Amino acid sequence: xxHIVACIKQVPDTKIAKINPxxxxxxxxxxxxxxxxxxxxxxxxxxxLRARYGGVVSVLTMGPPPAVxxxxxxxxxxxxxxxxxxxxxFAGADTLATSxxxxxxxxxxxxxxxxxLIVCGKMTIDGDTGQVGPGIARRLDIPPLTGVxxxxxxxxxxxxxxxxxxxxxxxxxxxxxxxxLLSVEKDINEVPYASMPNVLRAARYEPHIWxxxxxxxxxxxxxxxxxxxxxxxxxxxxxxxxGGTMLEGSxxxxxxxxxxxxxxxRELLDTEVTxx
Amino acid sequence: MNFDDYRGxxxxxxxKDGGIAAVSLELLGAARQLADKRASExxxxxxxxxxxxxxxxxxxxxxxxxxxxxxAIYRDYRTEAYMRAVLACVEKHKPEILLYGATSTGKDLAxxxxxxxxxxxxxxxxxxDVEADTGLLLASxxxxxxxxxxxxLCKKYRPxxxxxxxxxxxxxPRDPGRTGEIVAESIPLQEEDIRTKVLEIVRATVRxxxxxxxxxVVSGGKGMGGPAGFxxxxxxxxxxxxxxxxxxxxxxxxxxxxxxxxxxxxxxVTPKIYFAIGISGAIQHLVGMHNSGLIIAINxxxxxxxxxxxxxxxxxxxxxxxxxxxxxxxxALEAERVCSANxxxxxxxxxxxx
Lengths: 276, 354
Known about the structure:
heterodimer, A: alpha/beta, two-stranded antiparallel ribbon, B: 2 domains, five-stranded parallel sheet
């Protein structure tokens, strides 16, 4: 019985979010909170591995109380259990402080049920770093495997996993001992629409919720803003470039003008390689 | 932690296709500027099997010193092996700043090293500066989905670390006369210490044109309306022998694969011509293409920010204009082919006369 834990995050939908031009911070009221899109693939992969090998899929998040919604979304995808750590002491954490807090929660989960595999999304759309997954792996002293585009085999009895890691021009096949941590690519799977039983279960689901005081051996100086070595010193709108020459006339005339502009610098059209 | 013990700017020298990765050479250029401002030195960390001969190249591109970990155990990139080498080197020689290319390898390695040291790590930086008197690294990057820039500092720990986007910094011209120190380093590391093993490396058999290498890139955004409209992007690219790029929205909508995404969380491109069609021009996209030679933007919204960042702009319906461009460019290129075919015939005719 595999125990797979997916680490997930609720994020503001940065595609929609507006920036407050006065403070240059994200206006959270403008953006709905969603489950980080990359994490949906991590949860889906965990669910697929459970279908292949049997076991339990847990999800873990750190966030403010409304992040329960993101856990419910994971239950819709098919996760069995949800864990959330929430506490003011976690606020303002950078990737190092985040990986510390999540590791402490993972250690507590592992006491209840030993963990064989941790799955993370490639990155979050608000932080855009991809650093938390490898950070957790280092803290737990298990191998981090990033860029995973396929899980070829998990063998719990013999204690190994074989995965494909994406390279710029192909992939590599890597064997790792278990437990290990996988950061998965978006194209590892497609997340289907949730089944009705999962949707119904998710609607009623209440996750395990822990505060700092519930976690063992925790060093409070490593949490939140205090435990974060990086700080955002300033946020600024980049200088506006001066802008280009706008073409005029009918669409047909503009298309012809553009052709002439490019033909005046004919060498630009020489391509060394032609595409398929 | 005594900050005065930490000196110099380091670059992790990534090995790619038997040479030093372009991004690492770019970072040596950036490191040179930072180090000069601090009156300190630039060092490279080179890890691999049989890589010692590459150290000279790093010196010619700006390094004063290269620490080399050359051993069979480093043949394939593996987080645990490379991380141990970097950690040992940092502990021994104490850099003030350590930079990595924001490639899959650089990001993987930097994340692990940052956790073990521990220290702060800024991801995907696009601008670097240093305070001359304090040595504080100012690493800036697009933030919050890419509409604004944030400057990130690490005041409490050394070394300060950042991953840096490829093709953003400028490599120095190679100076074959430049000299420096090559330092062979090693740590006791056995195969049994490493828990992963690369079983096989599979190169893509059909060599697709990678968009970061293409001379022309035609990119489409949400303004193409849907997958059917996006097909016009493929057709214009086909006409021009170009690669197809895309904005983040359309990749997330599934119109095209992530490999085609141009921008902060995708690929950085510097083609001779870049078409941004139906793309509004969020900063997160702009950082991935703004160094292109000729940028042409087509969008139906005259207020779209992309028009601030292009060389030529057309306000209009992409679905109407792109077919006209396909026709116009197709006609012009076809005419050239006929022309050159004719001149070949003429040459043959002349040859016949002789």
